[in-house]
Amino acid sequence: VTTSEDMEKENVTLLTEFVLTGLTNQPQWRLPFFLVFLVIYLITMMGNLGLIALICRDPNLHIPMYFFLGNLAFLDAWITSTVTPNMLVNLLIKIKMISLTECKIQFFSFGVSVTTECFLLAAMAYDRYVAICHPLHYPVIMTNRLCIWLIVLSF
């Protein structure tokens, strides 16, 4: 007679890796997909980092709207960098495996960055609301301290 405790000990599966199926299993499409996604990734990163550099360099852009846009560009670069580099590597290698730990880290990082972006977009919406509905009170309401506080809260 087998007890339920014996069955529990025997019926254990330990999952340590995932197999990624990817976009295509045909080898001739791996390099074109890699090049297309690499170009898109590089353009995205250059655009976001260029926007951040431009906002930091130009003193005329040191206002709340551009402060929020600079942080949004940083978040977009972060979101893009959580998934895309691993995807590019997996397009080139034949054995497409990812460990459970890597999967959890990537999923957590992506989830945190997307959630942060939602809160940042809400802060940007508040900034635009104040600018449109209370234009005379805008400089008094949207102080640097409040902008930094909203950014910190979104992170």
UniProtKB/TrEMBL annotation:
Keywords: G-protein coupled receptor, Membrane, Olfaction, Receptor, Sensory transduction, Transducer, Transmembrane, Transmembrane helix. Belongs to the G-protein coupled receptor 1 family. Residues 47-155 form the G-protein coupled receptors family 1 profile domain. The chain crosses the membrane at residues 33-55, 67-93, 105-124, 136-153. It is a multi-pass membrane protein. One of its GO terms (biological process) is sensory perception of smell. GO terms for molecular function: G protein-coupled receptor activity. It comes from the Eukaryota. It comes from Marmota monax. This is G-protein coupled receptors family 1 profile domain-containing protein. GO terms for cellular component: membrane. It is found in: Membrane. Pfam families: 7tm_1 (PF00001). The keyword Ubl conjugation does not apply.
